[in-house]
Specification:
Blueprint: E1 3-12, E2 15-23, E3 29-41, E4 47-52, E5 56-59, E6 63-69, H1 78-88, E7 96-102, E8 111-122, E9 125-138, E10 141-151, E11 161-162, E12 165-166, E13 170-180
Antiparallel strand pairs: 1-2, 3-4, 3-13, 5-6, 6-7, 7-8, 8-9, 9-10, 10-13, 11-12
Length: 181
C-alpha cells in the first residue's frame, strides 16, 4: 500500500504545528492528551508562557489540518488571559489558530523527524511557516511533537504592552498530540 505522511506543528500563538504519517485513504484523528505551549519574552527577560490542552486533528486527501481553539489558552494570570484573548488575539473574531500541512511535506510511514512547511492562519492572517517535527509510531498511534517560531508582527497582532513595558514580537510554540489512522 502506498503511504504518504505529513508533519505538523501548530503554532499559534500563538501556536503552531506538526504533521503525521497517514495513508492516502486513511482518516486521521486525535487520541488522548494533547498540549500547546507558547513562550514569549517580556522586558528584563520576563518569560510569558501560555498553555492549552486542546488540539484538533483532521485530514483530507491532500492536507493534515491542526486546529487550536485560542479561547482555551491560559497564562496562569486571569487579567493577562483577558487582555491576551480580548485585546491582542481578538478570540471572539478569530477563535482558532489553524495549521495546514500538505501530506507530501514530509514522508515516511513509520515516523521520523525533520523540518517541513505549512500554512498557518492566525488572527485573520494566513502565512507560510516552517516548523520542526518529531513523529514516533507507537503501535497503531503516532506520538507527534513539533515546534514553530512565529513573529506577532507577521500576523498583525499588536505587541502586548503594560505600563510602558512591551513584549517582544517573537513567540515560540510547542505542540504535542497523539493521533491514529
Amino acid at each position: 500500500m502506498n503511504r504518504s505522511s505529513s508533519r505538523l506543528l501548530l503554532s499559534l500563538t500563538v501556536a503552531a504545528a506538526l504533521g503525521v504519517t497517514v495513508a492516502a485513504e486513511a482518516k486521521l484523528s486525535g487520541t488522548g492528551a494533547s498540549s500547546v505551549e507558547f513562550k514569549a519574552i517580556g522586558p528584563g527577560g520576563l518569560k510569558i508562557n501560555g498553555k492549552s490542552s486542546v488540539v484538533q486533528v483532521a485530514d483530507d486527501e491532500k492536507n493534515v489540518t491542526i486546529t487550536v481553539p485560542l479561547g482555551g489558552l491560559d497564562t496562569g494570570i486571569g487579567m493577562r488571559n483577558t487582555h491576551m484573548k480580548e485585546k491582542y488575539l481578538e478570540v471572539a473574531k478569530y477563535p482558532n489558530a489553524v495549521l495546514v500541512v500538505p501530506r507530501t511535506a514530509a514522508g515516511y510511514p513509520n515516523g521520523g523527524s525533520g523540518d517541513a512547511a505549512g500554512t498557518l492562519t492566525l488572527h485573520g492572517q494566513t502565512k507560510p511557516v516552517k516548523f520542526h517535527y518529531d513523529v514516533k509510531k507507537e503501535g497503531a498511534e503516532f506520538a507527534v511533537h513539533g515546534t514553530v517560531h512565529i513573529n506577532m508582527d507577521d500576523f498583525k497582532i499588536e505587541k502586548p504592552s503594560f505600563a510602558g513595558a512591551t513584549v517582544r514580537p517573537d513567540v515560540d510554540v510547542d505542540v504535542a498530540f497523539r493521533a491514529k489512522e
